[in-house]
Automatic annotation (TrEMBL):
<protein>
    <recommendedName>
        <fullName>Nicastrin</fullName>
    </recommendedName>
</protein>
<dbReference type="GO" id="GO:0005886">
    <property type="term" value="C:plasma membrane"/>
</dbReference>
<feature type="region of interest" description="Disordered">
    <location>
        <begin position="179"/>
        <end position="201"/>
    </location>
</feature>
<feature type="compositionally biased region" description="Polar residues">
    <location>
        <begin position="189"/>
        <end position="201"/>
    </location>
</feature>
<dbReference type="InterPro" id="IPR008710">
    <property type="entry name" value="Nicastrin"/>
</dbReference>
<dbReference type="GO" id="GO:0016485">
    <property type="term" value="P:protein processing"/>
</dbReference>
<dbReference type="Pfam" id="PF05450">
    <property type="entry name" value="Nicastrin"/>
</dbReference>
Length: 249
């Protein structure tokens, strides 16, 4: 996004002069309960809950991304905070791993790098075995999920598997438990060609058998008119929808 030479005024000249500064950033992951460096034989299947933490816009320093993707990141962090206060998480049959990826607005750099480091056994992902990743739940744009007075979200499944159905059933069970909040989760239309653009696609490219769900505030038609622009600001976000969603985790 930047060059070290003033005379390079475009991508072509920047690459030719080898003066382009690379895109960079820091992705973050954590687990509940904390993971040990146990052998694969003693590890539990992993459920990954992920969100993006960066955006883009024509005006680079005004990439606010309030709805896409920060609303999903808020929901993820709130869910992590709520779960961290529970006892006996070690008795769960699955291992929970949460990740916030940077660089997703630029070819899903964060999630691709995460999977690359898993393959290479990098210290930054020590404790995670990629072969144990069973499910991926991605929280996308969830700041505008309103339909006829209800808070409505759509679950886009990567494949019609029993695991994807379990994720959807869990989300629907969580929405029912909220009672008066009128939060609903519905499966996305079967006529959709697949999951929307998301970090989940990086996992699917790595392993085609990966089951996952992307939770969004739209079904067949993308609803954020200000996606990747400086107009995707907090003033256009329905903040309490993010809080409702996090309660379902």
């Amino acid at each position: 996004m930047q060059t070290t030479k003033a005379e390079t005024n475009g991508s072509e000249s920047c690459l030719k002069e080898q003066s382009c500064l690379p895109l960079g950033g820091q992705s973050v992951w954590a687990s509940l309960p904390p993971m040990s460096n146990a052998s694969a034989e003693h590890q539990k299947p992993i459920i990954m809950v992920v969100a993006s933490q960066d955006s883009a816009s024509f005006f680079r320093d005004r990439s606010l991304g309030a709805d896409s993707p920060i609303s999903g990141l808020i929901a993820l962090l709130t869910a992590v905070d709520a779960l961290s206060h529970l006892h006996d998480l070690g008795k769960l049959k699955k291992q929970l791993v949460f990740a916030a990826f940077d660089g997703e607005a630029w070819g899903y750099l964060g999630s691709r790098k995460f999977l690359q480091e898993l393959d290479e056994g990098d210290d930054s992902v020590n404790g995670i075995n990629s072969s144990m990743i069973e499910q991926v739940l991605e929280i996308g744009s969830v700041g505008k999920g309103i339909s006829q007075g209800d808070t409505l979200f759509y679950a886009h499944a990567s494949r019609n598997s029993s695991i994807s159905k379990k994720i959807l059933d869990g989300l629907q069970s969580g929405s029912d438990s909220l009672g008066s909040d009128n939060v609903k989760v519905k499966p996305a239309a079967s006529s959709n060609p697949g999951v929307p653009p998301s970090s989940l696609m990086s996992f699917m490219r790595k392993n085609t058998s990966t089951s996952g769900v992307v939770l969004e505030d739209f079904d067949s038609q993308f609803s954020n008119r200000f996606y990747h622009s400086h107009l995707d600001s907090p003033g256009k976000l329905t903040v309490h929808r993010c809080a409702h969603l996090s309660h379902q985790r």
